[in-house]
Write a structure and sequence with these properties.
The complex is a heterodimer of chains A (476) and B (223).
Chain A: H1 3-13, H2 15-49, E1 55-59, H3 63-72, E2 81-82, H4 83-91, E3 98-110, E4 113-118, H5 121-124, E5 127-128, E6 132-133, E7 150-153, H6 155-161, E8 168-169, E9 172-173, E10 191-196, E11 208-211, H7 212-217, H8 227-234, H9 267-278, E12 293-294, E13 296-301, H10 306-319, E14 323-326, H11 328-382, H12 387-428, H13 444-464, H14 468-474
Parallel strand pairs in A: 4-11, 7-10
Antiparallel strand pairs in A: 1-13, 1-14, 2-12, 3-4, 3-9, 3-13, 5-6, 7-11, 8-10
Chain B: E1 2-12, E2 18-29, E3 34-38, H1 45-53, E4 60-65, E5 68-69, H2 75-85, E6 86-89, H3 101-112, H4 118-127, H5 143-154, E7 161-165, H6 173-190, E8 193-197, H7 201-204, E9 209-212, H8 213-216
Parallel strand pairs in B: 3-8, 3-9, 6-7, 7-8
Antiparallel strand pairs in B: 1-2, 1-4, 4-5
Classes of the chains: A alpha+beta (476), B alpha/beta (223).
Chain lengths: 476, 223
C-alpha cells in the first residue's frame, strides 16, 4: 500500500471538507488557465494578424491607431492619404524596393462587419501566418479587378452577416467615415459576394473585402485635396514642373511626394496605366485619380532589396510631410509589452493570489483536522510508521488536494474559455476554443506541487512532532 | 526473549518535578511465553508496554528483545524494529477508519518496509473468522470483529512479541473469551510471546503466568 493511497484514503475520509478545499483551489487555477489561454490566443492572433507584409503606410498621426485600424479593423479610420502615394510605391521609383503593394480603404461596414476596399492582390499575393496562401471555400473565388462590385467575405464575417456566394449587399458608412457624404446610408450599388475565405485565424476573418474600384464609384474616399495635399499645395515654391520636379524636401526622394491635383489631371493616362497593370476594364468610369484617397497601404518589401532601398523606405516616408510608415509587428509587440502584457500580468497576479489563498485554505483545512487526526497518526506510529512517513502522508495529502483542485481548475478554465469563446469571437474576431492549451499551463503542475509543499509543511511538521504515547493514551 | 533490567521511567509534572512511573529491577519473558499483566489503574501498565515497544523512551535501564537492546536504538531504528518485531493490540482497537479490514492489516506490513504479503493478511483475517468481511470498513464491523481485525493486524509482520493493552475492555462479556482464545491460539501457532494487560480476573486467570505490576514496580505511583 503506497503512501499516496494512504493520503488519498485520508482525503476520502474527510470528503466534504476536502472537496470544498479542492474546489477553492480549482477556482483559482481556472482563473489562471482562462487568463493564460485567452491572452495566449489573443497574443497569437494579434501577432499573426500583421504577418504577410512589412510596412503599413498611412496618414501621419498615431502609428498604433493606423495599425489597429488597418490590421485589426479596430477604432477610428485614420485620415486618408492620396492615391498617388500608392501609385508611386507601386510603380514609381520605389518599384524595386517593394514586392507587393496593396491599398486599403476603410470606414464602411455591413451588419457590423467592416467592409474594406482593396485590390485582388490582397489575397492573390499577400500571405498570412507562416507564408500561407489565402484560400476560398469551395465554389468561391477572389474578386476581379475588372468587376468593381464584387466582394469576398471573411469566414467569421460570413457567419455574422449570413452572406454566401451569390448574395448581394449594400455597404453602409461606419462611424469612422463621418467625413464622407452619405453617412449611415447604404449605397445604391449592390455588391456581389463571389467568395468566402477559409478561416485564417487572422482579423481578416471578420471583414468583408470588396473591389476598391467599386468603392470609389460609391463616391467614397474621394474629394478635394487632403490636409496633406493642402499642406503641400500651400507651399509657394511648388511650381508646375515640366518634367515633374525633383522635390528638394527634406528626406523625400523623387516620386514620393503626392502630386497636386492639377498636376495629376491626366486621368485617362493614369487610368490606362492602372488598367494595364491590373487588367482593369471598368473603372475608367470611376473617380479621377487625383480625387482618390486610400486609408492605408500595405507594403511587402522586396526581400532582395531589403538591405538597401527597402530598408531606407520607412525613413524616407517618415521624413516627408504626408505619410508615415510603420512596422506593424513592432507596433503590436510594443502594444503587448506596454499595455496588454501588463494587463495580463495584473490578471495573472490576481489569479495567482486566488490560488495562493486557496492554498492557504488547504493549510487551514488540514491543520484544523490535525487535532482529530493526531490519534490516527499515533496509531500509524505505533504500527511502525516513522515520523518521516506520517509527515510525508500529510504532505502528499496537500499535494493531492492541490493537484486534484488544479486538474478540476484546468477543466473548469477550459470549459469557461469554451463557453466564452463565441462571445470573445463575436467581439474581437479571435477564435478561442476550449481545447487550446498553452504550454505555460504545464508550469501549473510544478507550481501547485511547490505551493502544496509549502502549505502542507506546517501540518506535516505537526504530524511529525506528534507525541505517540500521549496521543494513544488520549484516544483510549 | 524479553529482558528488562533496572528500568526507570518518569514523567515531568506541571510544576517541573519528576513523577516516577516505572522502576523495575528485572522483568523477563521467554520466547512464545504468554502472560497476563495486572495492576490497578495508574500503576504503569500501559507505560511499560510503550517502553517495551519503543514508543516511549526509558530514563534508564535496558530493554532487550531478542539480541537487541532497543534503548540503544535511534528513533527511526526503534520505529522500524517495532514494525517488524512487535505487534500491538489496543483497548479501543485503533483501526484506521478510512481503510478496510484487509487494508488495516496491510498497513502494518507497509510500515515494516518489507514485502506486502496479501496472502498472509488474508490468511490472518481468515483465521480470526473474517474472511467474509475483508473489504468492510471498521464502522461496518461489530466491536468483536474490529478487535479481531486488530489482532490480525498485530500479527501481520510475524512479530516476536505481541502486546495487548486491555484487549477485552471494550468487548462485551460474550466476546471476551473469543478474543482471549484468539490471541492465545494464534500466538501459540506462531510462537509469539504475548503480554496481555488486563483488569479482568476472568481473563487474567486463564494465563499460567500472572504478574502484578504493583509488586514489581518500585515507583510509587498508586494513589
Amino acid at each position: 500500500m503506497s503512501l499516496w493511497k494512504i493520503a488519498w484514503r485520508s482525503i476520502q475520509q474527510r470528503a466534504v471538507a476536502s472537496a470544498l478545499t479542492a474546489f477553492a483551489m480549482g477556482l483559482g487555477v481556472a482563473l489562471v488557465v482562462a487568463v493564460l489561454v485567452i491572452y495566449g490566443v489573443i497574443d497569437k492572433s494579434f501577432r499573426r494578424g500583421s504577418q504577410g507584409y512589412d510596412l503599413i503606410v498611412g496618414a501621419k498621426g498615431s502609428s498604433l491607431q493606423l495599425v489597429l485600424n488597418t490590421v485589426f479593423h479596430i477604432g477610428e479610420s485614420p485620415q486618408p492619404i492620396p492615391y498617388s502615394f500608392y501609385e508611386k510605391l507601386n510603380r514609381g521609383d520605389f518599384g524595386t524596393a517593394v514586392d507587393t503593394v496593396v491599398p486599403v480603404c476603410m470606414g464602411h461596414d455591413y451588419k457590423g462587419a467592416p467592409v474594406i476596399a482593396t485590390i485582388p492582390d490582397m489575397f492573390d499575393r499577400l500571405r498570412y501566418l507562416n507564408d500561407q496562401r489565402y484560400e476560398f471555400v469551395e465554389g468561391g473565388r477572389n474578386f476581379r479587378m475588372k468587376a468593381p462590385f464584387e466582394a469576398v467575405v471573411g469566414s467569421m464575417a460570413a457567419q455574422k452577416t449570413g452572406l454566401k456566394v451569390g448574395d448581394t449587399f449594400e455597404p453602409t458608412h461606419g462611424g469612422a467615415a463621418a467625413q464622407e457624404p452619405d453617412d449611415g446610408k447604404g449605397h445604391h450599388h449592390k455588391v456581389k459576394v463571389v467568395g468566402i475565405l477559409k478561416h485564417t485565424g487572422t482579423p481578416n476573418d471578420q471583414a468583408i473585402f470588396m473591389n476598391i474600384e467599386g468603392f470609389y464609384q460609391f463616391g467614397c474616399h474621394t474629394g478635394g485635396p487632403t490636409r496633406a495635399e493642402q499642406l503641400l499645395n500651400a507651399k509657394p515654391a511648388q511650381p508646375k514642373p515640366e518634367p515633374p520636379p525633383k522635390p528638394k524636401r527634406q528626406g523625400i526622394l523623387p516620386g514620393l511626394a503626392p502630386e497636386p491635383a492639377e498636376e495629376h489631371g491626366h486621368e485617362e493616362h493614369a487610368h490606362a496605366d492602372h488598367a494595364a497593370e491590373h487588367e482593369h476594364a471598368e473603372h475608367v468610369h470611376g473617380v479621377p485619380m487625383d480625387q482618390r484617397r486610400v486609408s492605408a497601404i500595405l507594403v511587402c518589401t522586396n526581400q532582395d532589396e531589403r538591405s538597401r532601398l527597402g530598408m531606407a523606405l520607412p525613413d524616407i516616408i517618415n521624413n516627408g510631410p504626408v505619410a508615415q510608415a510603420v512596422f506593424p509587428a513592432k507596433e503590436i509587440h510594443q502594444l503587448f509589452e506596454r499595455i496588454i502584457g501588463n494587463i495580463q500580468l495584473v490578471l495573472l497576479i490576481l489569479a495567482s493570489v486566488v490560488v495562493v489563498v486557496a492554498g492557504v485554505g488547504i493549510l487551514v483545512s488540514i491543520y484544523n483536522s490535525m487535532s482529530d487526526r493526531r490519534h490516527e497518526i499515533a496509531i500509524m506510529r505505533a504500527l511502525g510508521a516513522n515520523r518521516m512517513i506520517v509527515g510525508t502522508v500529510i504532505l502528499l495529502e496537500a499535494i493531492l488536494l492541490s493537484l486534484g483542485g488544479g486538474l478540476f481548475g484546468v477543466l473548469l478554465g477550459h470549459g469557461l474559455v469554451g463557453i466564452l469563446g463565441p462571445t470573445i469571437a463575436a467581439h474581437t474576431g479571435v477564435m478561442v476554443s476550449a481545447w487550446q492549451f498553452q504550454t505555460n499551463e504545464l508550469m501549473l503542475i510544478p507550481s501547485l506541487i511547490i505551493l502544496a509543499s509549502i502549505v502542507g509543511y506546517l501540518p506535516a511538521a505537526s504530524a511529525y512532532r506528534t507525541d505517540v504515547a500521549k496521543s494513544l493514551t488520549a484516544g483510549q | 526473549m524479553l529482558q528488562i533490567r533496572d528500568l526507570k521511567k518518569s514523567f515531568t509534572e506541571p510544576d517541573g518535578g519528576d513523577l516516577p512511573i516505572l522502576d523495575i529491577e528485572a522483568f523477563d519473558l521467554a520466547a512464545g511465553e504468554q502472560m497476563a499483566l495486572v495492576g490497578r489503574s495508574g500503576c504503569g501498565k500501559s507505560t511499560l508496554l510503550h517502553v517495551i515497544s519503543g514508543i516511549s523512551r526509558p530514563d534508564s535501564g535496558k530493554v532487550k528483545i531478542g539480541e537487541w537492546d532497543i534503548t540503544l536504538f535511534t528513533e527511526p531504528e526503534c520505529d522500524r524494529f517495532r514494525a517488524e518485531q512487535i505487534g500491538y493490540v489496543f483497548q479501543t482497537f485503533n483501526l484506521l477508519p478510512g481503510f478496510s479490514a484487509l487494508e488495516n492489516v496491510l498497513l502494518g506490513m507497509r510500515f515494516a518496509g518489507g514485502r506486502i504479503d496479501r496472502a498472509r493478511a488474508k490468511d490472518l483475517l481468515d483465521r480470526v473468522g473474517l474472511s467474509h468481511r475483508m473489504t468492510h470498513k471498521p464502522t461496518q464491523l461489530s466491536v468483536g470483529e474490529q478487535q479481531r481485525v486488530s489482532v490480525a493486524r498485530g500479527l501481520a509482520n510475524r512479530p516476536k512479541l505481541l502486546l495487548a493493552d486491555e484487549p477485552t475492555a471494550n468487548v462485551d462479556s460474550g466476546h471476551q473469551q473469543q478474543v482471549v482464545d484468539l490471541l492465545r491460539g494464534v500466538c501459540r501457532e506462531e510462537n509469539v510471546g504475548l503480554i496481555v494487560v488486563t483488569h479482568t480476573p476472568e481473563v487474567a486467570n486463564q494465563f499460567e503466568r500472572i504478574d502484578n505490576l504493583e509488586e514489581i514496580n518500585r515507583a510509587v505511583v498508586v494513589a
